[in-house]
Amino acid sequence: MLGAITGDIIGSRLEFLGLKRYDFELFTPECEFTDDSVLTFAVAEALLDNLPIAKNIKNWATRYPGRCYGGMFAKWIHSENDVPYNSFGNGSAMRVSSVGWLYKTIKETLEMAKKTAEVTHNHPEGIKGAQATTAAIFLARNNKTKSEIKEYISQTFDINLNRDYKTVQANCQFDETCQISVPEAIIAFLESTDFEDAIRKSVAMGGDVDTQACITGSIAEAFYKGIPIEIEEKTKSYLNPEMTIILEPV
């Protein structure tokens, strides 16, 4: 889960710059956690403490306003009910990483990913994006190879992961949908050599870089069995105490 937060923070200052550079400074004073991290913590807390998912997401988003929430989501936060709005944006995938760590079977993992997505993103593509992300995390933490992860995601969710990284990078544009950003984030992971390389490749693609790096980082952490200690410590320095407490069991 910390891998998702790390990707979000690193990508936060680079989202709209369109640099597509690999050799950027990972952390600067301009970095911050965005809606990706806030909602990741909201979902994790809800699952750990058996809280209503929708209400806890609204609670966290209200406590942390101005974190680049999407327009439809921002309206939903302040709505009087918890009715989902049929979104297929990548918000369902960016907040789901804890699910990949908390359950013992792939069946339960996919069921819970659906539950966390459909409170807002009840469009089939929104649910699929969350499920594909958390499936990759589950498989990675259970020692599956990249080839096995790629095959499962491709066949189960009908996602094309056969594209070359450089080709994807050359054609990548800003897109907040699950259909575009989730495959791109997974490809960045598949072609990485370690955790830092995965984050750099994801950001260097361009596009919705903080969310792509969030998704890539969540998978890379599981596959590479952790995060380099200096990156972990730097990431945590951007967080509030209530956030770091939630990280411990996930």
Describe the structure.
The protein has 15 helices and no strands. With 250 residues, it is mainly alpha-helical. The relative contact order is 0.18. Helix 1 packs across helix 14. The protein is globular, with a radius of gyration of 16 Å. The chain has one domain: Orthogonal Bundle (ADP-ribosylglycohydrolase fold). Helix content is 61%, strand content 0%. The longest helix is centred in the middle third of the chain and has 18 residues.
Fill in the CATH topology.
ADP-ribosylglycohydrolase fold
Fraction in helix: 55-70%
CATH architecture: Orthogonal Bundle
- The CATH superfamily turns out to be ADP-ribosylation/Crystallin J1
Unreliable segments of 5+ consecutive residues: none
Largest sheet: number of strands, sense, barrel closure: none
| Distance between the first and last residues' Cα | 6 Å
Approximate strand percentage? under 5%
User: How many beta-strand runs?
Assistant: 0
Shape: globular
In short:
This protein is mainly alpha-helical. Helices cover 61% and strands 0% of the residues.
List strands and helices in order, with pairings.
Elements: H1 2-11, H2 35-48, H3 53-63, H4 71-77, H5 91-94, H6 99-102, H7 106-118, H8 124-141, H9 146-157, H10 165-171, H11 178-190, H12 195-204, H13 209-223, H14 229-236, H15 241-247
Helix pairs in contact: 1-13, 1-14, 2-3, 7-8, 8-9, 8-11, 8-13, 11-12, 11-13, 12-13
